[in-house]
Amino acid sequence: MDETDTAVREITITRVFEASREEVWRAWTDPEQLKRWFRPHGFTVPECTVDLRPGGVLRMVILAPDGSQSTKRGRPARGPRGRPIPAPAPRVKYQGNLLSFPPKGTGRRQVSARDAGGVLASKAGCGPEALARYFRVLGDPTRLRIIEALLERERTVSELVSLIGAPQSRVSNHLACLKWCRFADAERRGRRVVYRIADPEVEQLMRVARSLASAHSEHLATCRRIGPDWL
């Protein structure tokens, strides 16, 4: 995607807590504490694991009021050159946000969460045109195969080329699109660059889309109004 097509905006949320930096840090990184607040209103989290090591994953099983269940996965935190974050850290990249813990006084902690990728801002002001571009990212079979492969596990470009059977230049181009549009993320490990899903909600989106497409497969297969130029 052309960088000039999308203006990245940021949202910064600041709160002051009657707690030390260590206590606030545990609220973000301790699974038992995350279960109590890192979820939508009315939902519960029966399972939660957090691994702050390089390549570690935050995994949450979220139970909706209607009894349906979904699993969220994401990269919890990353320090310089992929090293684990020291606890507690003054600045932390956590779940796509940049958290800062300024040292103000004793017993009180100001926490600022900055939406580093413009994700919150985009959702807050997402009009039909932006939403159409979002779904257009999913409108290519090769990109969908890449997303499905990354939902299984982290992969390198060469692994994706071998799995999908497309030229490396095409796979790399699609990965650039997925990375820019925040579907995927990349991390260099020595000479290797590993790609992963950046937003854990992509898994839920794919599951819902697959269910809807299966229910209407005959109509999708015979629709004459979707042309090749849409892909």
For the structure shown, list the relevant keywords.
5-stranded antiparallel beta sheet; Alpha-D-Glucose-1,6-Bisphosphate, Chain A, domain 4; 9 helices; alpha+beta; 2 domains; 231 residues; 3-stranded antiparallel beta sheet
In short:
With 231 residues, the protein is an alpha+beta fold. The protein has 9 helices and 11 strands.
Description:
The protein is an alpha+beta fold and 231 residues long. The protein folds into two domains: 13-116, START domain (Alpha-D-Glucose-1,6-Bisphosphate, Chain A, domain 4); 128-230, Orthogonal Bundle (Arc Repressor Mutant, subunit A), CATH 1.10.10.10. Helices cover 37% and strands 24% of the residues. The protein has nine helices and eleven strands. It has helices at residues 21-29, 31-37, 119-124, 128-137, 141-152, 157-164, 168-180, 201-215, 217-222; strands at residues 12-17, 44-50, 58-63, 69-74, 77-78, 91-94, 97-100, 109-115, 155-156, 184-189, 192-197. It has a five-stranded antiparallel beta sheet with strand order 1-8-7-6-5. The protein is globular and about 60 Å long. 16% of the residues are buried.
Q: Can you give the mean pLDDT?
A: 75
Helix and strand sequence: EHHEEEEEEEHHHEHHEEHH
Q: Please indicate the count of domains.
A: 2
The side-by-side strand order for the widest beta sheet comes to 1-8-7-6-5
Unreliable stretches (pLDDT < 50, length at least 5) are 1-8, 116-125
**CATH top level label of the largest domain:** Alpha Beta
CATH architecture group name of the largest domain: 2-Layer Sandwich
Overall structural class, as computed from helix and strand content, comes to: alpha+beta
User: Which shape, going by the Cα principal axes?
Assistant: globular
Proportion of helical residues:
25-40%
